[in-house]
Design brief:
Blueprint lengths: L13 H13 L11 E9 L5 E8 L13 E5 H7 L7 H10 L13 H6 L4 E5 L2 H7 L4 H9 L3 E4 L6 H14 L6 E4 L3 E6 L2 H20 L16 H15 L4 E5 L2 H7 L4 H4 L9 H4 L4 E3 L4 H18 L16 E4 L3 E6 L2 H24 L7 H8 L2 H8 L11 E5 L4 H12 L3 E6 L13 E5 L5 H15 L4 E4 L15 H27 L6 E5 L12 H21 L5 E7 L10 H10 L4 H5 L10 H11 L11 E4 L8
Parallel strand pairs: 5-6, 9-10, 12-13, 12-15, 13-14, 15-16, 16-17, 17-18
Antiparallel strand pairs: 1-2, 1-4, 2-3, 4-7, 6-7, 8-11, 10-11
Length: about 650
């Protein structure tokens, strides 16, 4: 394993050193994933009374090792933590309270539940990770034997114990028994690795050394998986139907992402796949992945229903393990291994689904390496259930329990690179939707950052490109719930007598024909939306009140609205609602240049500012105001409305 340490140019304060050590180990994705791992450094501070107080700065709960900042560390009084280690028993809730009471800064985040363990280790700097190589050694029927084969007596070996107070008490007993002058680290079976030293650099160097030794051991024995059969890409309809089944059982819309790279394809085509995947690599992963995946071939709704039934049995078998009354979690799988199609990762959001993908991808390697030196063996069902329904792990999930209204929903917006289309995409994402933006401009691809955005450069008049866009939408997010048709051109401004055929044809093709083709192609996906499909068509004031010189534009938009009205009639039985927004005088779009604005204002003998406000309400109509209406039409506010035509124009006498 490569050593990433960069020695600072000058002596660092304790917190800066802790940040450096944490970020350095956090740069290794096979050591920590999505908030996993933790770190600490011991120090001395002066309290307001002038007394010196020994503290341990521990990584705060919820902070990521790769990006942690000084404020992500929690200062805790070491003397109080040592006192807590002498208590016979304490509940998790009481422990969390006691840890907060031991803080010297009330503004700090909640400290890691493993703070007691950091306090008892007699070293200034401590690093903890869930290293893949270590997990491959420790997830075995007889893990200590294998760990000793690699490290001998240079590590302390701790059997699996529930994280928190119980683990700290066990370590407090085992450490004096096993630790010697040659101790380099501590292996927590089914959990990970601790290393330590008088500096973060020393603790990190030991981490790299021990993991490198494990990797060398595994590599010398590890075969490379070979694909046993072909994996084919599922159709959009197959993915959409699968998402519908998953979402129906979860009672909320879910994101379903498909992947089938070489590593995944090789793994899912192995024989006895169900036996390989007998549980998560580390217990904390269960809150993301559940205990088991759904395993099958060309998985459909039937297999989903069977998985849900088995999960309910699992819950009923184990619910007595908690002294508290438990409510069953969403029983649907979080990842699906399909020997014909690859892997699906499932989440409430695309970010959640991506986290599942990352964890499972590492788990594949852990399983493969573990089986090269023994037999991959996860924890027993009961131990995993205790973590899945652990009050502290549940608290982490509840922090994000209040989701935006469109969370888990998937939208396509055409004309998304600028103006109204861009604003619609932005508003829908702010409401929680994952959005696919389509535009002829290449700028659409990287227009927004984050997993909930997919920008596709495509001409809406290209049928093949639209079909591909729908396929990519299904593969990336799992389906389609919202369609916003905002792409459009104004075309030639001239009297009908002077209208060029090419301008007419182009305007009709973009504004009407392309929209018709996308509506038709999208219907099967919208029909299978778990929350009911929503279509919003961007019209224009010209539909109700056309003006001279805009025949092609006015006609194409009027045709689009008429098509949408028919769709509202035909698609209501499928649970799809179709509504319309009619903007006017939206000047922050690509259609309006400063020169054109000045020209139009002069025609009416107005200033540009007066021209922008020439409506009954004397207000400026912006792309965002139009987009806010579009977003509202996609929420439950419009759940009983279809076929509605809403002007966003500041009030127009001719329309009214």
């Amino acid at each position: 394993m490569e050593n990433f340490w960069q020695t600072p140019t000058e002596v660092e304060e304790d917190l800066a050193e802790a940040v450096r050590g944490s970020r350095t180990i956090g740069a290794h994705k096979d050591l920590v994933l999505h908030g996993g791992g933790n770190s600490s450094i011991k120090s001395t501070i002066t309290d307001p009374t002038g007394r010196s107080v020994q503290v341990v700065y521990v990584k705060g709960s919820g902070w990521d090792m790769a990006t942690i900042e000084p404020r992500g560390f929690v200062p805790l009084r070491i003397s109080r933590l040592h006192e807590l280690l002498e208590v016979e028993n304490i509940s998790d809730t009481e422990l969390v309270n006691e840890l907060r009471c031991a803080m010297t800064n009330a503004k700090s985040p909640d400290p890691s539940i493993e703070s007691l363990l950091h306090a008892l280790l007699p070293h200034r700097a401590v690093l903890h990770s869930h290293a893949d190589a270590i997990i491959s050694l420790s997830n075995q029927p007889d893990p200590e034997q294998l760990v000793r084969q690699v490290y001998g007596d240079t590590v302390v070996v701790v059997p699996y114990v529930m994280p928190g107070f119980d683990l700290a008490r066990v370590c407090n007993e085992i450490w004096p028994e096993q630790a010697t002058d040659i101790t380099k680290g501590m292996v927590l079976l089914n959990h990970g690795l601790f290393t330590f030293g008088e500096s973060m650099e020393e603790a990190y160097a030991l981490h790299i050394r021990l993991i490198s030794e494990a990797e060398t051991f595994l590599t010398a024995r590890g075969p490379t998986l070979k694909r046993h059969s072909a994996v084919v890409t599922p159709s959009a309809q197959q993915i959409v139907a699968l998402r519908k089944s998953l979402s129906d059982h979860a009672k909320r819309p879910l994101i379903v992402s498909h992947a089938a790279d070489d590593a995944i394809s090789s793994f899912v085509t192995q024989s006895a796949l169900s036996n390989l995947c007998n549980g998560p690599a580390t217990p904390d992963h269960i809150i993301r992945t559940k205990q088991l995946p759904l395993v099958g071939e060309a998985v459909s709704g039937r297999e989903v229903a069977e998985y849900v039934a088995e999960y309910i049995k699992y819950f009923e078998r184990n619910r007595h393990r908690s002294r508290d009354s438990l409510s069953m979690l969403d029983p649907t799988p979080r990842y699906i291994l399909d020997s014909k199609h690859g892997m699906y990762s499932v989440g409430k959001t695309k970010k959640d689904a991506d986290i599942v993908f990352d964890i499972v991808s590492h788990t594949f390697k852990i399983i493969t390496d573990a089986n090269a030196v023994g037999t991959y063996t996860s924890l027993p069902e009961g131990d995993l259930f205790d973590i899945e329904y652990w009050e502290l792990e549940q608290a982490k999930l509840l922090l994000g329990a209040s989701s935006p209204e469109l969370s888990g929903q998937i939208a396509i917006v055409t004309g998304a690179a600028s103006g109204i289309g861009r604003a619609c995409a932005e508003v829908l994402m702010s409401l929680g939707a994952s959005v696919v933006g389509i535009d002829i401009s290449a700028s659409v691809v990287g227009m927004f950052e984050g997993p909930q955005w997919l920008g596709l450069c495509a001409d809406v008049c290209d049928r093949a490109a639209l079909d591909l866009a729908l396929e990519q939408t299904a593969l990336t997010f799992g389906g389609l719930d919202i369609l916003v048709l905002a792409a459009g051109v104004f075309g030639q401004s001239s009297p009908i007598s002077d209208l060029e055929a090419s301008s007419w044809d182009r305007t009709i093709e973009v504004n009407f024909n392309a929209a018709q083709r996308l509506l038709t192609a999208s219907h099967p996906l919208l029909k299978n939306s778990p929350v009911g499909g929503k279509v919003v068509l961007i019209g224009t004031k010209n539909v109700a009140a056309p003006g001279p010189g805009a025949a092609a534009y006015s006609t194409s938009k009027a045709a689009l609205i008429q098509l949408g009205r028919v769709a509202a009639l035909e698609w209501a039985a499928d649970g799809i609602r179709v509504n319309f927004v009619h903007p006017d005088a939206v000047f922050d779009t690509g259609l309006w240049t400063p020169e054109l604005l000045a020209e139009r204002a002069a025609k009416y003998e107005m200033t540009v500012d007066e021209y922008k406000h020439r409506n009954l309400l004397s207000t400026e109509v912006t792309s965002n105001k139009v987009a806010q209406m579009v977003g509202t039409m996609c929420t439950d506010v419009f759940s009983a409305t279809t076929g509605a035509q809403v002007p966003v124009d500041g009030g127009n006498e001719r329309v009214i």
